[in-house]
Amino acid sequence: MTQPTTAQYYTDLPAAELIAQIDRLKQEKNAVILAHNYQIPEIQDLADFTGDSLGLSVEASKTDADLIVFCGVHFMAESAKILSPGKMVLLPHLGAGCSLADSITPESLDDWKQDYPDHTVVTYVNSTAEVKAESDICCTSANAVSVVRSLDNDKVLFTPDRNLGRWVAEQVPEKEVVIYDGACPTHDVLRAASVERTRDEFPEAVIIAHPECRQDVVEIAHEVCSTTGMLKAVEKYPDAKSFIIATENGMLHQLKARFPHQEFMAADGCIGCRLHCPYMKMTGLQDVYFSLLEQRFAIELDDEVIEGARRSLERMMAVPRDD
Length: 323
Ligand code: CIZ
What we know:
By secondary structure, the protein is of the alpha/beta class. The protein is 43% helix and 15% strand.
């Protein structure tokens, strides 16, 4: 088969025309476009739904769309496929991976489980479908505490994010939580000293941090929550003028759009230059256009993997969210 070249995937259509073409293709193919809160503004504005990875996958499963275009990273599109196995799910940019999800493989999870045969495996949704299938239950940043608390077993293996795992363990001290050594490099790079520097400029600001941040950051935050939780957290402070946001900088776009009268700053004090996930920023309008035009790149998963991963996700969905 002839490999397509990059040139074949380039069009000089201006942005407004690309958006019109995307809209036309979307109607023609009965597609729904999902954008994670960390995507670039143009993609968030174009999407039918914006949100966190699980919320988006659930929304898409409720639609009668034949095609789901997931503007996010690979594991997110996999979650959409797991919840909608009968629909075609497309990831517009094949390079959009996730360092955290890649930090654990089914083999490394299996090795780890051998050392802790009596523990229940709780896996953050930022993981591959194969790893989810090898786990007992999944969790998101919005329900991790409730999921761990809900378990009958007092012995838990938490994977793959060590920061989220530590945060959960602190809140559920009655359980023994053994934590895998993975992290999201975008969140893990942030230190409390950078947040403090931002706060020096805005001393009244409310600090909202994602639980994938390190302990020193979480300790100085007023609120610790998922990206969906951040939108709800802001509502709790109607009189606050400014907020310092410790998560990937794409979240600022959602917050500014929903709360135009309040001010939102990236916690790294450099307009989000460190809180920037290169994978989340790979998808552009051209990728979405070609994705719809040529139905690429379709997520393919073995039935067995879908079944195992779906079981772990459904067990989790039976537990109420924390936010
Ligand atoms: O799973 C997600 O959507 C991520 C990466 C974060 C969040 O809190 O929404």
